[in-house]
Structure prediction request, 292 residues.
Amino acid sequence: MRKAERTALLNGFGIALGDSLIGLQALFAAVSLGLMGRATLFRAPECRDLVAGIYQCADDLADIAVLDGFRPGAFDRVIDIRDFALDPGFRGVAMIDYFLGKLGLDPTAVPTDLRRNGWLAPRVRPQPALGLPTRYVLVCPTSSMALRDMPADVHAAVLRTAMGAQDLPVVTQGAASDGAIRVANCGDFTELCGMVSAAACVISTDTAMLHLADAFAVPCLAVFTTHRPEWRMRDYPLCEAIHLQPLGLPDALEFSRGDADLAATRAAWHAGAGEITGKAQDFLRRHTGSAP
Prediction:
């Protein structure tokens, strides 16, 4: 790829935390390999504060600007990444490969360590979450959409398993039970990083938390429903996956089409509850070093 002096990236890498984390890793790879000069990354103005925080950590990789301020004539090269979730090419591939391709790189030629989320940790100073123990098991049952959320009864079973399989405190982002500690939703990105980086290990649904776990080298057991694990965590050596396959749903479903889709994913969670708790028990005993 020609090293353009003035490159514009339109819409950055979406408005979701996980997508942004992975997209910025693709940009980091392009810069690290000398295949892209300093770019201007134009963001959607409706970005949540939590997501905006991740781009503040990336200001050495690109100039961050508001999308409304884009002027085509000011750039030698424009890379339009708007509405990528609707792009058929986005579905059924590893997300990092998609973003690398959009930046003009051949994903197969990019070293494995540059396909992980290594860009973040050196650029953020995690803030300890108030009121939490110094080391704990972190359970993350919710995502940015109900389609991927862990049902309440499955979440409760995971908490019971976590409390019984090892002797560290258990912290959850969901409803607490069986002695677990509920943590409030983080509105600050550095606090979210602090919560993940202080964990001994993480159990999560398919959401940004598994990508943050990789960024801070925290072991993670991740449960996938709508997407195959290799499309999200192929390059994460400390991430283990459980793949639940909802009946009747197409692969890589990005958005719920109605109540039937939600019912199918919940049925898959319930059918796989035994597998989840069994694998969680083994995972916890291996990664906490504190079996009771």
Observations:
- The chain has two domains: 7-123, 136-288.
- The longest strand covers residues 199-205.
- DSSP finds eight helices and ten strands in the chain.
